[in-house]
Design a protein that fits this description.
Number of strands: 0
Largest sheet: none
Radius of gyration: 23 Å
Structural class: mainly alpha
Distance between the termini: 84 Å
Number of helices: 13
Length: 262
């Protein structure tokens, strides 16, 4: 039965993801599934893990993503879909709950509710202890950082008409839920600002030990990428200064190139 449910879900998700751009396509889903299952196998050495719930939640995690919803769209119910495919009610509900909580946006909201005291103790305990959520969440975040993260950020920015780099744009430090869904979701900001506002933070938000270790490795790559980007932009600024100085000033008496005589 589980093989039938997985096969039906794979067929549905592969077709559905064709409506999104390549930052959130079927290949992204496949990578998340592979990583989620690897994390689930690692976690299962020390605690019980429902691997089927992990696999199905990873497959469905981006279906009906809020970033792509259009006015008038019919909401998708993963629980209803999975029940129709033959999954038992308890597991279908577990998958739906994980999908609802998996995103960075939803975690920002949950953290804000925790600070305000409006979240329930049961919900806080579930977010802290649900190993299946941890596996899917970490897997999705791993694909948002590192080399694939760089590619996906650029692809999403291009699809939304968001600038890749604007030196006048300042990243929002410790971005809040309201800022993220209001000013930054959609066309706000730049791809580079998104690195600082979200992507570089993800390593500190990982839930599993293998996820944390891999996230640090991928975060280091992104930092190297940003250093390279800053260096390339600085080169342009230096050339502008040399051009402004003029050829006569660049090699004045008693001075090295680029200096003027005192």
């Amino acid at each position: 039965m589980s093989g039938t449910v997985v096969a039906a879900t794979e067929r549905f998700v592969e077709e559905f993801m064709g409506r999104y751009d390549c930052s959130h396509d079927w290949h992204h889903v496949q990578r998340v599934v592979r990583q989620a299952l690897a994390l689930a196998r690692a976690e299962a050495r020390s605690k019980p893990v429902d691997v089927l719930v992990v696999q199905l939640a990873a497959l469905l995690h981006d279906v009906d993503d809020a970033k792509y919803q259009q006015e008038g769209d019919t909401p998708f119910s993963s629980a209803r879909f999975l029940a129709g495919a033959g999954l038992d009610e308890a597991r279908a509900g577990a998958v739906a709950r994980i999908i609802d909580a998996v995103s960075f946006r939803k975690e920002l909201l949950a953290e804000e509710q925790d600070r305000l005291g409006t979240s329930s103790p049961a919900d806080r305990a579930w977010r802290r202890d649900c190993v299946e959520l941890a596996c899917v969440q970490d897997a999705d975040r791993l694909d948002a950082i590192g080399a694939f993260g760089v590619l996906r950020c650029a692809a999403f920015s291009g699809a939304r008409g968001r600038p890749l780099h604007d030196p006048s744009d300042v990243a929002i430090a410790d971005i809040t839920y309201e800022q993220y869904v209001g000013e930054r979701c959609g066309k706000g900001g730049t791809a580079v600002a998104h690195f600082h506002e979200k992507l570089l933070r993800l390593a500190s938000m990982m839930k599993t030990e293998p996820g944390r270790q891999e996230a640090q490795r991928r975060r280091a790559f992104m930092c190297q990428f940003l250093d390279q980007l800053d260096g390339e932009y600085a080169f342009g600024a230096k050339t502008d200064q040399v051009a402004t100085a003029g050829p006569q000033d660049q090699d004045g008496p008693g001075g090295s190139p680029g200096q003027t005589a005192q």
